[in-house]
Specification:
Elements (H helix, E strand, L loop, with lengths): L2 E5 L5 H13 L5 E3 L10 E4 L2 H32 L4 H7 L1 H23 L2
Antiparallel strand pairs: 1-3, 2-3
Helix pairs in contact: 3-4
């Protein structure tokens, strides 16, 4: 019976490529199903054998722990440089930021206008 190792919905391409390389490096016999365009099927990495599933799961857990630590370090470094938050978004793309604020205000006003007129 197939064992589902990982869902591929909303997985970045670099992470999926890293996992493929990890499985190839350790000669894990896996197969992959792609996620659908409309989000109906999840897609993922699969194996048939129980022993292979346990080995692949251990490799995947180690990789995920390393990736979390690496992503946390990168995020902390961006925070230290001041590259996160609303102010950074405004400074990097002021026109887009202001357009989004105006759109949010317009949607809120159109949504709440009938209740305000009561």
């Amino acid at each position: 019976m197939p064992h589902h190792l990982m869902n591929l919905r909303n997985v970045p391409d670099d992470e999926a490529d890293d996992i493929r390389a990890l499985f190839e490096e350790h000669e894990v016999r896996y197969y992959e199903t792609p996620p659908s365009r409309w989000g109906i099927s999840m897609g993922g990495f699969w194996v048939h054998d129980d022993d292979e599933a346990a080995r692949a799961r251990a490799l995947l857990d180690d990789y995920q722990a390393q990736r979390v630590a690496r992503q946390r370090e990168e995020y902390d470094a961006r925070c230290q440089r001041g590259e996160t938050g609303l102010w950074h978004q405004f400074r990097s793309r002021p026109v887009t930021f202001l357009a989004a604020i105006i759109a949010i205000a317009a949607i809120l006003s159109l949504t709440l206008l009938p209740y305000i007129r009561l």
